[in-house]
Amino acid sequence: MIEVKNLSKSYYKTVALKDVSLRLSTGCITAVMGPNDSGKTTLLKCILGLVKPLSGEIYVNGFQVNGNCEYRKFIGYMPQFCCFPENLKVKEVFNMLKDVRGNHCTYDEDLIGKLKIDKIFNSSIGSLSGGSRQRVSSSAAFLFNQEIIILDEPTAGLDPASSEIVKEKIIAEKQKGKLIIITSHIISEVEELADRIVYMLDGSIYFDSTKEELLNLTGEENLNKAIAKITAIRY
Amino acid sequence: MKNISKISKFFIASCLFITSHLGFGKDIIVTEGNSIKNAVESSSEGDRIMVSSGIYFESGIIITKKIELIGKDYPIVDGGSIGEIFTVKASGVVIKGFVVKNSGFSSLKDFAAIRVENSINCIIQDNKLINNYFGIYLAGANDCKVFNNEIISNAVKESASGNGIHLWKCDNILIKNNSVSGHRDGIYFEFVTHSKISENFSFNNIRYGLHFMFSNWDDYEYNVFSTNGAGVAVMYTKYVKMINNRFENNWGRPNSYGLLLKDISESFIFKNTFHKNTVGIFAEGVSKVNIEYNLFTENGYAAKILGNCTEDTIKANNFISNSFDISTNSSRNSNLFYGNYWDKNKGYDLNKDGFSDAPYRPVSMFSMMVEQTPESIFLLRSFLVNLLDLAEKVMPVIIPESLIDLNPRMEPVI
Amino acid sequence: MTTVKILKYVIYDILRSRIVIGYTILLFAVTYGIIYTGKDASKAIISLLNVVMLVVPLVSIIFGTIHFYNSREFMQMMLALPVKRKNIFWAEYLGLSFALSISFTLGVGLPLLIYGASAASLYLIFSGAALSFIFTSLSFLASVINNDKTRGIGLSLIIWFYTAIIFDAIVLMIYFLFSDYPLEKFTVIISALNPIDLARILVLLKMDISALMGYTGATLRLFFGSAFGTVFSFAFLIIWILAPTAIALKVFNRKNF
């Protein structure tokens, strides 16, 4: 469970987050959406401890996020861009993650098989295509069976087949009762995956509701139009 | 014919030897427990005193007649730190084969292990002089020979120590194959003329290996001067020849020179080696001196030639691996540099005559800077200094324009 | 422990980088060339000294900066793991410094040692390795205080230019202008303020600078003419490694990624 209380953050004079409060519970996929610079990345980075908030508190499974790194053992994270060192081999990347995590859980190597990562185990990251790197990155995010999984644009750059595999995996993990956060610009994907949509605008949560509520509220058939309609009110 | 003449020479020589003994003197034998002084006093002109091995605690042995003092198996004469040990006041005296120890020390009188005063034709040879104030002291002596002696002391302070071989007002002296260490100056010459210093080894003396003043027409050759406080000083002198000597390891102190030349004129410095000295040659007020065929290696400065040096010729020397080759304190130059080999010269030789086609300036701008501000040595070999030196070589502004080797050699002179 | 675990992979990564391999080969070729065309060992060391004092700082600081910016996403990912920030910082810093030092030691040290080790050549190898650590440290400092890559690289270049040339030019000018004043203490202080000068003096103390110090006053001679000068240079090189690293770590700990 993640609890965000009155979170604010600004970089120099730019306000990134204004008094954001949020409660995310297990067994649910939350999509954090919003235009560029709306604060969604900052929100995730605050949860991950990459960015130190100006004020407010974050609790992850009861641990307060305040510079201590312990709570991150609950979180699996897939960044938007794969970023492993260029000259490491794929298997070395996995070894490194295992070395560092050090927890001897049963590894979830489901995606490694399905995404055929084992075939590129001996290639160096630098020699892989963008899509292959994303495949490595996503399989690494699920490897440690964490209760919380944060995925930044999980299907960006993936071929349709791999994309499907990853989406299936996300849903399967939700059904195991995990807390999953995704960000995405692809509304169809959000529609397919998300139970709950947090839409951010100018550092605040513009709306926060389930997919069904949103459709009912706007009276639209699909999410695309619903979001267009509801954001239009503001402009 | 040849053999006959050899045999006859030998025969004549043997006859002379025998007759000299038979004719002019007798042998006196001194054994341990007896006094050398008594033997000397009781001897007469032309006698030979043979001293057997052993320790003789004596000093103040004054020799006033022509005798020979010969030590057998190095008898030890220990002066017990009182006064002078041997004082020679007669001509033709020979002192040979002794170990002479512990002369007295005085700040008023220069006590020596062996002193020769106002005499001619004396020979001091094959002695070991240990821990004396002065070692061998020749004053007003002519035509003497000092050779094969080993002179050791353990001086620590300049003011409280004497010289190894000290000559004052002498003429036609031979100083050969002696080894001197641990004195103030290894060899000291003042008002000494027509003399020769050769094959000596002077090292670890606290001031100069050789100290040489007002002494004209002298030669020194094949000597080695090493790790002396300030190297070798030759001052206020004319007509000196310095040939085939080694000046080395005078390193790191404020006045560590290989060879210090001060007010020298019309002299020759040939074929010497200057190795690992802070300054190979330091020349001040030197004129009409030829410095030729010498080798300068791994010195801080190969040569510092001050502005008051004139009409000197620096020719056919090798300058290899010195930090600075030539340094000067003046923007003028009135000496001739010609046909030297400079390892820093990056010149070319298109006509293959063995000489660089372009002239070479051996003074670097940085060495001039260090001359002015010694602390700037701190920037030695920094990129900036290398850059400035290069620029200055191409377009001289600070370095003396006329200090230039017009025909630098491409290869070292052998 | 965590630092070592990550460090290992950082070193694997960097040692396989084409730039670092190229750097090693270049240093090796230059050193080999200088040694085998030169006539004596001390001259080879002096020529190498010029190369080392320019190239090692430049490559270390530029490569370090580029590496830091290229690793930013990797660091973000690592920071999302249950790992302390300082562990990641140390792993990255030590990984890069060790990799560059290894590369330097192979490139310059190997041919020198084959040719015959002397005190001066050992000090040259040590100085080069120390400069690798120092300029990596400075590169991290430049990167960590600039979010913009171009500005970071710009700052690194300025630092290099300053330490390699400008600093000495200023010192030379001071010597020139104030030659009538006692400059010994100034020299001692100034020598500690530039790591490249320190490294150069450390090597030259084993060669000829000690002899030339003979002409300066007693303080400087006492200072650099004895073992104390060597110890002093060593100590300040270590300080030059630690100080920028400590500041960079402090900024890194508070940094928003």
Task: Characterise this structure.
- The complex is a heterotrimer of chains A (235), B (414) and C (257).
- With 235 residues, chain A is α/β, with parallel strands linked by helices.
- Chain A has helices spanning 40-48, 90-101, 110-114, 130-142, 160-175, 187-193, 211-218, 223-232; strands spanning 2-11, 14-24, 28-33, 55-60, 63-64, 75-78, 148-152, 179-183, 196-201, 204-210.
- Chain A has a domain at 2-80 and 148-232: Rossmann fold (3-Layer(aba) Sandwich).
- Chain B is built from four helices and 39 strands.
- In chain B, the strands form three sheets. Chain B has a 14-stranded parallel β-sheet, covered by helices on one side. A 13-stranded parallel β-sheet of chain B has the order 3-6-9-12-15-18-21-24-27-30-33-36-39, with no helix packed on it. In chain B, strands 4-7-10-13-16-19-22-25-28-31-34-37 form a twelve-stranded parallel β-sheet.
- The longest helix of chain B has 23 residues, at 2-24.
- Chain C has one domain.
- Chain C is globular, with a radius of gyration of 19 Å.
- Chain C has helices spanning 2-15, 18-37, 41-70, 72-79, 85-115, 119-144, 149-177, 184-193, 195-205, 209-212, 218-225, 227-254.
- Chains in contact: A-C, B-C.
- Chains B and C meet through helix 3 and helix 4 of B and helix 3, helix 7, helix 8, helix 9 and helix 10 of C.
SSE layout and pairings?
The complex is a heterotrimer of chains A (235), B (414) and C (257).
Chain A: E1 2-11, E2 14-24, E3 28-33, H1 40-48, E4 55-60, E5 63-64, E6 75-78, H2 90-101, H3 110-114, H4 130-142, E7 148-152, H5 160-175, E8 179-183, H6 187-193, E9 196-201, E10 204-210, H7 211-218, H8 223-232
Parallel strand pairs in A: 3-8, 3-9, 6-7, 7-8
Antiparallel strand pairs in A: 1-2, 1-4, 4-5, 9-10
Helix pairs in contact in A: 7-8
Chain B: H1 2-24, E1 27-30, H2 36-42, E2 48-51, E3 55-57, E4 61-63, E5 68-71, E6 76-78, E7 86-88, E8 94-96, E9 99-101, E10 112-117, E11 123-125, E12 128-130, E13 134-139, E14 145-147, E15 150-152, E16 165-171, E17 174-176, E18 179-181, E19 187-193, E20 196-198, E21 201-203, E22 210-213, E23 219-221, E24 224-226, E25 232-238, E26 241-243, E27 246-248, E28 257-265, E29 268-270, E30 273-275, E31 279-284, E32 290-292, E33 295-297, E34 301-305, E35 310-315, E36 318-320, E37 324-327, E38 334-338, E39 341-342, H3 365-372, H4 383-394
Parallel strand pairs in B: 1-2, 2-5, 3-6, 4-7, 5-8, 6-9, 7-10, 8-11, 9-12, 10-13, 11-14, 12-15, 13-16, 14-17, 15-18, 16-19, 17-20, 18-21, 19-22, 20-23, 21-24, 22-25, 23-26, 24-27, 25-28, 26-29, 27-30, 28-31, 29-32, 30-33, 31-34, 32-35, 33-36, 34-37, 35-38, 36-39
Chain C: H1 2-15, H2 18-37, H3 41-70, H4 72-79, H5 85-115, H6 119-144, H7 149-177, H8 184-193, H9 195-205, H10 209-212, H11 218-225, H12 227-254
